[in-house]
Amino acid sequence: MFTSLALAALVATTSTVSATKLYVSSYNGNITTFDFTKSANASYNLARLDTTTGCGTSSSWLEIDLKHRNLFCLDENFASTVNASIASFKITDEKSAGSLKKVTNAIVPAAPVHSALYDGANGTQLLAVAHYTHALTTYTVDPQTAKFALSQNFNFTMSKPGPKPQQPAPHPHQVVIDPTKKYLIVPDLGADLVRIYYVDPTTLQISERPSVTVPPGSGPRHGVFHLTPRAANQRGETHFYLLTEISAMILPFNVTYLPNNGGLTFTPIGKSVWAYGSGANLDPVVASGNAPAEIRLAYLKTGAPQLIVSNRNATFFRDVKNPDPKNSTAIVSDSLATFTLPKLAPGAATANANETQLVTPQALTPAGGLFPRSFALHPNGDMVAVGVQTSERVAIFHRCVKTGLISKEPVAAFEGLGQVSSLVWGV
Ligand SMILES: *[C@@H]1O[C@H](CO)[C@@H](O)[C@H](O)[C@H]1NC(C)=O
Ligand SMILES: *[C@@H]1O[C@H](CO)[C@@H](O)[C@H](O)[C@H]1NC(C)=O
Ligand SMILES: *[C@@H]1O[C@H](CO)[C@@H](O)[C@H](O)[C@H]1NC(C)=O
Ligand SMILES: *[C@@H]1O[C@H](CO)[C@@H](O)[C@H](O)[C@H]1NC(C)=O
Ligand SMILES: *[C@@H]1O[C@H](CO)[C@@H](O)[C@H](O)[C@H]1NC(C)=O
Ligand SMILES: *[C@@H]1O[C@H](CO)[C@@H](O)[C@H](O)[C@H]1NC(C)=O
Ligand SMILES: *[C@@H]1O[C@H](CO)[C@@H](O)[C@H](O)[C@H]1NC(C)=O
Ligand SMILES: *[C@@H]1O[C@H](CO)[C@@H](O)[C@H](O)[C@H]1NC(C)=O
Ligand SMILES: *[C@@H]1O[C@H](CO)[C@@H](O)[C@H](O)[C@H]1NC(C)=O
């Protein structure tokens, strides 16, 4: 008896070579905990461990704090135009490994769509939330308990509508923390602005700094910072890659820090590129519908940086193997686009010219279905989990860490999740 148990345990530990939790929110209020495992025979499995409610009816975004084992969930609450909610959870092993235990929730202004967690002085924490209609709110967080309380609320207005139908009013869409952890950056899709806030690390109060204006009708949605390698006693350059949803482009900027916490200036550098890449052979009508959603920075094993973008409603792939192994019907699919960035030597400066091709289209691959709203890179960099909203599935693709190329077919997928809005990797 003892021998066979020991043997079974040995088999179990040697056949699973790695396991990582994946948390997935759906626009039906469910948060699903998955276990993604790699077996010794190089097969992958995505197993559902648990489903949690408690994040309203329209969960739109997940924010994870691995250090304190907290998960924050935004609820867009489609039923109301005036209010929505935010919930917090502790990651526990009570029901199953990595299951979620609700801590609290709070009614907040309408349409929270994205958040960032800022670590202040002495273990304090701030959750900053972008509300599509038309606000930025912040909450002080007790990281030990995951309880939170409203701190500030900025409401935005516009004197007249923007040039595109999506721009009747300001639409803050993301909060990003800059690499020096002094500023919050808020792309505003409705106002064609990148809003900038200074964060006082001690009081956690944020204060507005001059915004960056982008070309009218761009519709900035998400962005990502990149630091060029620094040499000893020298700063690297700080670049920001802004993904615009309406014009469907990546706009590269060089970022300069003003003295006395005065804010940031963004200077365009290098050519802007289409979010779907070079596009030479792409159907222009299909391309015109593209509404890119997510942009992430990744690195190759060589240290070279790469950008990955998810493109929605640009269904370039018409005959893709069904991610559901039980279903032989081919699917149509939107795309993931990869781009390479130059690998600069430490301290080397980017050539200072508008025509520099900083962002070079690399590949366009299927996203696992329609409307890849969100995707997340596995901590090892070798997998990309895609939340495929309209197809109601999660698809996990292999990413080659040497080349940055993403596999055309997923290594694992899970169907029937409702409209997937967001996903984050756990441990
Ligand atoms: C939430 O998930 C549970 C468990 O998978 C499922 O039974 C339920 O139908 C889901 N809820 C919705 C609204 O889809
Ligand atoms: C690989 O291992 C897994 C888990 O042990 C097993 O379920 C699967 O059938 C194996 N696949 C192959 C192709 O042997
Ligand atoms: C939220 O808004 C709805 C109307 O959309 C209202 O009925 C409800 O009372 C509000 N809830 C709170 C807690 O303010
Ligand atoms: C912003 O709007 C909310 C209602 O969503 C209101 O409660 C709050 O007082 C407003 N804040 C400011 C600074 O105007
Ligand atoms: C943070 O800790 C430092 C050093 O212990 C202390 O001097 C400072 O007053 C603390 N700040 C706050 C806001 O508690
Ligand atoms: C999707 O793209 C097509 C063009 O291919 C466009 O006609 C349509 O309005 C777009 N739909 C959405 C929801 O953006
Ligand atoms: C198989 O996939 C097709 C294409 O996505 C879909 O329309 C169909 O409902 C699926 N069938 C089943 C049984 O899931
Ligand atoms: C970027 O900005 C930094 C800081 O202002 C400056 O030193 C550098 O030359 C700029 N690089 C480019 C390519 O404009
Ligand atoms: C870059 O382009 C802008 C706008 O077209 C122009 O004002 C600027 O002089 C150009 N800078 C360089 C270095 O070519």
Structure overview:
The chain has about 425 residues and is mainly β. Helix content is about 5%, strand content about 50%. It contains two helices and 31 strands. Strands 16, 17, 18, 19 and 20 form a five-stranded antiparallel sheet that branches. β9 (about 125-130) and β10 (about 135-140) form a beta hairpin. The longest helix is centred in the first third of the chain and has 14 residues, at about 1-15. The protein is globular and about 60 Å long. It starts with a helix and ends with a strand. One 2-acetamido-2-deoxy-beta-D-glucopyranose binds near residues 80, 82 and 83. The site of one 2-acetamido-2-deoxy-beta-D-glucopyranose (NAG) has 4 residues, from loops.
Brief sketch in words of this structure:
The chain is mainly β. It has helices at 2-15, 284-288; strands at 16-26, 31-39, 44-52, 59-65, 70-75, 83-92, 99-109, 112-119, 125-131, 135-142, 147-155, 176-177, 183-188, 193-199, 206-213, 220-227, 238-244, 249-257, 264-268, 273-274, 294-299, 305-311, 317-320, 331-333, 335-340, 360-366, 372-377, 383-388, 393-398, 412-414, 420-425.
Bound molecules: 2-acetamido-2-deoxy-beta-D-glucopyranose
Q: Major beta sheet, specifics?
A: 5 strands, antiparallel
* Number of helices in the DSSP assignment: 2
Helicity level = under 10%
DSSP strand content:
over 45%
Structural class: mainly beta
Number of strands: 31
Apparent shape: globular
Note poorly predicted spans. Answer: 1-14
Average pLDDT rating: 93
Radius of gyration, Cα only, in angstroms? Answer: 21 Å
* Separation, N- and C-terminal Cα atoms: 33 Å
